[in-house]
Amino acid sequence: MIHRSRSDEGDVDDLTKEFLLESGEGLDSMERCLGGLIADPSMDRIGEIFRAVHTMKGNVGFLGLPRLERLSHAGEAVLSRLRDGEVVITDEFVALLMQLADRLRGVLSLLEQLGHEGRRDCDDDLVLLEMLEQVAAGKVAGAPVVFEERTVRDVAGSGEKHAQQMESTVRVEVETLNRLMNLVGELVQTRNQFLQAEVSEDSFVDLGRRLDSVTASMRESVMQARMQPVGQLFQRFPRLAREVAASCGKRVRMEFSGGETGLDKSLIETLKDPITHAVRNAIDHGIELPQVRFPRGKQPEGCVELRAYHDGGQIVVEVRDDGAGIDCRQVVQRARERKLISAARAAVLSDAEAIELLFEPGFSTREEITMISGRGVGMDVVRANIERIGGSVEVESTPGVGTTVRMRVPLTLAIIPALVAQCGGQKFALPHCALLELMIVHRSDEAAYIKQVGNSRMVLLRDRLVPLLDLGDLLEMPMDRARGYYIAVLEAKGRRFGLVVDDLGEPQEIVVKPLSSAIESMGVYSGATILGDGKIALILDTAGIARRARIMDALSEEAAAMVAELPVLVPKVETQVEAETVLVFANEANERMAVPLDCVERIEPVDVARVEAVHGGKAIQHRDEMVMLEQVATLSRKGALVVICHDPRSERKVGIVVREVLEVADATRMEFDDGVVRVNGRMAAFYEGFCPYAEFAMQEAA
Amino acid sequence: MKNAIKKVAQKVVSLCTVRTGGETFGIETTSVREALYQCELLRVPLAPKFVAGVVAYRGDILLAVSLRALLGMAADARETNAVVLEDAESGELFALLTDELLDVEQVQASAWEPNPQTLDQTRSELYHGVYKTAGVPLVRLETSDVQPSWLMRHQPVMAMEARV
User: Fold this and answer.
1) What is the CA A637 to chain-centroid distance, rounded?
2) Which is the CATH superfamily of the domain at A231-410?
3) CA distance A588 to chain B (A)
4) Size of interface A-B (CB pairs under 8 A)
5) What is the pLDDT of residues A281-334, one digit of tens each?
6) Do residue A515 and residue B63 have CB atoms under 8 angstroms apart?
7) Which CATH number goes with the domain that contains B17?
C-alpha cells in the first residue's frame, strides 16, 4: 500500500512515480544483499537480488523504457545463472552487479528529473551490457573491480534525491489503515448520535466519553502509521560505505541488526545525518587500509555495523567499526594544536575526557582535508542534532579493536512488543527485550521446581537455580494463586531472575507513553500503555526491578551465598588476590558493607536538590558526568552521603547512597564465602557486584 | 481616584469549586484545563503517597494527585472526580482528584483573607487563604502547591516512604 502526498512535478505521471519508488526500494535491497553476498551467499539473498531486477524488467517493458529494459534484461540473465548456481561469486562478480545497480539508479534519477531515460547514447551502457552478456554466457567470471570516477558530492546528491522521495511518502501496513478506517467509521457514528441527542439526555456524558476514546485510538493509529522500521534508514548506507571506502582505497563490509526496530518517522529523518557522519568517520578514520589490517591479524575487509535496539525506554542506534580505535594521545595533541585546551589541562586528561574532545567544535584529527572528512563539521554537529531531539551521543573506543558511536534517542512514540502479565487484578506490560522464557507452575508440581532457601525462593530451570521474585510481594498486591502461577524468566544487567505473576496474556505491540517523572523516578515502571480494552497498563522496568531484587537477596544471607555459587555472569574485577583494601560503610539497617578502595573515586555529601531523575532512576552530576545512584540507605530531606565508584559491572561510575562511611582498612577473606570479608575483626559483605573474588567463586562452583 | 478604588474592590475572581472531605476548595478557572467526572483510576503500586494513580486523558497518561492524601485524610472510593491542571515547572498535565466537582463561582477578590492562625501545619502550607462567602468558606488552592514537581521536592520523606 503506498500513500503519497500530492507532488507538484507535473512531468512525471503517477504510474511512473510509483515505478520510481518501487524500483528505488528494489535497488536498495539489491545493494544491501550484494554487500553481504560473498560472506553469505544464501538463496534468500540471491532471490531478493533477482526479484529486484526481475520486477524492474517487468515494469519497464510496460512503461516503454528501452534503455532500462536492455540493462535489466541483461542483468536478469546473469542473475538467473547465479540463482542456478552456475556462477562463482567473486569480488569481480559483485562489483559488476554493483555497477549494474549504479547504472540503473542513474537512469532512474534521470527519469525522475527529466521525465525520460536520457538521450545520451552511452557507450558505457554497451560496455556494461557486453560484460553482462559475457558473464551470462559463462565466458568470464566477472568484470575487474573498477569504480566509476565519482566525487563524493555526487554520492551525497543522489542520496538526497532519494531521501526526498522517501520523505514525501510513507509505507503503511494495510492493517493499520483498516483500523484507522474503522475508527473513522466509529467517529462518524458517534457524531450522528450527538446530532440526534438532546443536551439534557443522560446518554450525553457517555457519548462524550465514547468520542474521547475514539479520538484517542485514532491518534494512536496515526502514530502507529508514522512508525517506520529503522532498517529503512539503514538501507541507504551500504552504497555510501562502498563509495567512501573506494575513495579511500579501503575495503568495507556493512552489517545490520535490529532493522525492524520501530522509530517515529521524524526521528528517522533526524538520525539520517548523524549516522551518515558516523559511518563516514568509521571508514575514513576508523577502518585501516587492507595492508595495515592484515599484519594486525584482521581480515583485510573492515566491518562497519549498524545496530538498533531498545534499551531502558530509549532507542539506541550504534555505528560500530572494527578499525584502529581512537588514539587518545593523538586526540589530546591535536586539541592542543588547535588551541582547544590548555597544556595544563592536557596533562591531566583521562582517556574518557580525551574522547570528549572529539565533540569540541572545530576538532579534526586529519592532517589533510579529504573529500569526506576534515571540513571541521564534526561530532559537535552530530551531538547537537541528537540532543535537539532529547537524545545523547557517546563514543567508546578500544585501541586496535574498534570504535562505537552510540546514539540514544527517546522513545516517546516508540512501539515495542510486550507481554501483558496480570498480578493482583492489575495488568502490567513486560517488554520482550528482557524476556527469556516463560514457565507455568501448577500447584501439584510446585514442589519439584520451586526450592526454598532461607526466605528466598528459587526455581530449578534446567539444572540451574534462578532466584525468584514475586511481583505481588514486590508491589505489595493481593495475589490469586489458587491453581498455580506463571514465571517470566527475565534478564537485566546480566542477571537472570524469575518474576512470579498470576497470569500471562497474549504478546502484543504496545505504544509506550511516558509517565510523570514522579512515577518514573521510582525505578519500577518505565512507562505506560493503553490496552485494547481502553484500560491502562504500567510497563515494568525490568532493570529497576532487578535492582530491587538484589537488595532482597542481600537480606537473606543463605540465599545470597547460594546465588553467589550459581554460575551467573559476574564481570571480572582486576585486583590483587589476597590483601584487598576496602571501604566499609553502613546501609539503612546498619549492616556493614564494603567496596574495594580501588573502585572508590570520591565520597560526597549530596543535597537532595542535586538529585535528578534520569533514565527512570536517580542521578547526580559529578564533574560533567552523570552518576546513577543506587540506594542502600534512604535519601532524607537533609541529604545523603554518596560513595562515587567505578562500577566493575558496567565500567561506569555509580553513586551508592550510604548511611555512614565507617572505615578504610585491609580485608581478609573468609572461608566458604567470597561475598564476605573480615575488616579489623568484624565482618562486612561486599556490595553486590563489587566483590573482587567473584571470579574465583565462579571457577570453584564450576 | 475614588472610582479606581471602587474598581479594584469590585474585581471578581472566577473559581472552579470542588469538595473533598467536607471542605470546599476553589481553583482559578483559568488554570483548569478540563473537569473529569468519575475517571477510571489505575493504582500505581509503590508510588509516593500523594499519587492516587494514573488516568488516561486524551491519549496521554496523567498522574493523579490525591487531594485527600495531601490533606492527610484516609483514601475514599468517592475520590474519582478530577480537574486537569498544568504543572508549570515540568510542563506536564496532571489530574487533581477530589470527592466532588461543584460549580464555577464568581467571588469578590476583596472577600479574600489570609489563612487563619489556628490552621494546622499541613493545611497552612496548602491553603492559599480563604474567601468569605455566604455559605461555607471557600479555600483557595494554587496549582503550584499541588503540582507533582513541587510535591516531589517538598515532600521527599512522603515520596520516599513507599520505596523502602
Assistant:
1) 37
2) Histidine kinase-like ATPase, C-terminal domain (3.30.565.10)
3) 9
4) 93
5) 888 888 888 888 888 888 888 899 999 988 766 789 999 998 888 888 888 887
6) yes
7) 2.40.50.180
